Amino acid sequence: MMYTFDFSSLWAYWPEFLAGALTTLEMTFAATVLGLCIGVAGAIARGSRHAWLRVVAGGYVELVRNTPFLIQIFFLFFGLASVGVRMPVLAAAVLAMVINVGAYTTEIVRAGIEAVHPGQIEAAESLGLSVPQVYWYVILRPALERVYPALTSQFVLMMLSSSITSQISAEELTAVANNIQSITFRSLETYIVVALLYLVLTVLLKSGFWLLGQGLFPRRRRLGTPL
Amino acid sequence: MKLKLAFGMAALAAAFVMAMPAARADALSDIKAAGKIRVATAMGVPLFAYVDAQLQPAGSDVETAKMIADSLGVKLELVQITNAARVPTIQAHKADILVANLAITPERKKAVDFTIPYATLDIIVAGPKDVAIKDYKDLTGKRIGVTRATVNDMMVSENAKDAEIVRFEDDATLITAVASGQVDLVSTQTAVLAAMNEKKGGDPLDVKFVQKSLDLGIALPQNEPKLKEWLNNWITEKFKSGELPAMFKKFHKRDLPADLLSRKD
């Protein structure tokens, strides 16, 4: 069995590949920012004194983490449209990603928060710090610093699973690859190129998170030790 | 350490070689020797290949596959795939032949081999009654849904460059998109349109214009003259005996064109 590789026929499509990769990155960026907000809010809610808040946040996490991402996307795009709630495809795709990654982030941030020693919080309270101050300086910042590696890998995972949104016609990298594959019939080459592009995106994303981490966690940058 | 790595590489290389199909006489003899034929069909295409009320594969493509297996005297193994996977499935030898309403096109002929036409279908642009569309020009700036990697996709992409083309992975998803109101203009084929209007309930979509009448061929890997000859003879025989047209009419409620066999794509 001989196979002659032909990457030259793909060269003409580099603007499409690039546009697909950019769409993937944009979707990932939006989902990361919004997902982190939901994750932090969800984690705080899960540790709340109010039972109803704990129940709502817990229900959200269980619902999202125990159903397939594809079903969540179909529900948002086709299911809701059937009852009259129509969203543009990119909005539906990003919303699905936010809801999905928000649930996972909730659990990761919660782990970080629970790792904060109660004595530190009591100490902060006895020093007269206000509730927001306690949350910001004593709970959230050390918590996020601790779980930062887990958070970043969750966001990278989400970027990779964003390929599923091609199913609802989002023109991201995987959809573009499928289009090009269907025009050129060079499926092996197309998927090799697209795999490499995802690899490049992952490296970009990880470098970005590393830089961000250097800025966000000066203690770690200066000391180089884990909390 | 180096030696271990070398061994590992050799084992890996050996695994690759083993994974490749052994040198073969020809596909037709292989099928007969194996006692089964692997036929790929694109499921989720109304009238051609779909899952019936008993959750069994049905449709004219599925029926054609059964008839071929019967005539060969071998067992049928249906390989169920999506539209976009049709040509790659044959290229990768994941199936022996493909009966999946695949239109015969010059581009596809570079990748796989085709038999003479075994069926036809019309591809059309459809939309709501009150939308005036007569030509590709009228699609400018409009959202139109297609199934990825179909002739529809190619023709709309080629002729309506200023339209916003929304691509779905298979016909079933495109039907869902129409039924749920996510798109109202579509480029598809008549059989799919019938299913859309059935699912949609009120306000059926009308045919706006016919893009092309397509000849469908059975696809097989290139350089298999014996298998191709056998299939061509089979189509000719079953068409002349009336079995193929009768079966087609049972599903599609229309006749195959009388000049089907003499059609040269």
UniProtKB/TrEMBL annotation, chain A:
Subcellular location: Cell inner membrane; Cell membrane
Superkingdom classification of source: Bacteria
Cross-referenced PROSITE patterns: ABC_TM1
InterPro entries: AA_ABC_transptr_permease_3TM, ArtM/GltK/GlnP/TcyL/YhdX-like, MetI-like, MetI-like_sf
Bilayer-spanning residue ranges: 20-44, 73-99, 191-212
Alphabetical UniProt keywords: Cell membrane, Membrane, Transmembrane, Transmembrane helix, Transport
Domain ABC transmembrane type-1 span(s) in chain numbering: 21-209
One Pfam family, short name: BPD_transp_1
Membrane topology: Multi-pass membrane protein
Chief site of localization: membrane
Stored CDD domains: TM_PBP2
Recorded family membership: Belongs to the binding-protein-dependent transport system permease family. HisMQ subfamily.
PANTHER family documented for this protein: ABC TRANSPORTER PERMEASE PROTEIN, MEMBRANE COMPONENT OF AMINO ACID ABC TRANSPORTER
Protein name according to UniProt: Amino acid ABC transporter permease
Organism (species): Ollibium composti
From TrEMBL, chain B:
Top-rank lineage group of the source organism: Bacteria
Pfam families, sorted: SBP_bac_3 (PF00497)
Annotated SMART domains: PBPb
Keywords from the UniProt entry: Signal
Record bears the keyword Nucleotide-binding: no
Signal sequence segment: 1-25
InterPro entries in the cross-refs: Solute-binding_3/MltF_N
Keyword Magnesium: no
Ranges where the Solute-binding protein family 3/N-terminal domain occurs: 36-255
Descriptive protein name: Transporter substrate-binding domain-containing protein
Species assigned in the record: Ollibium composti
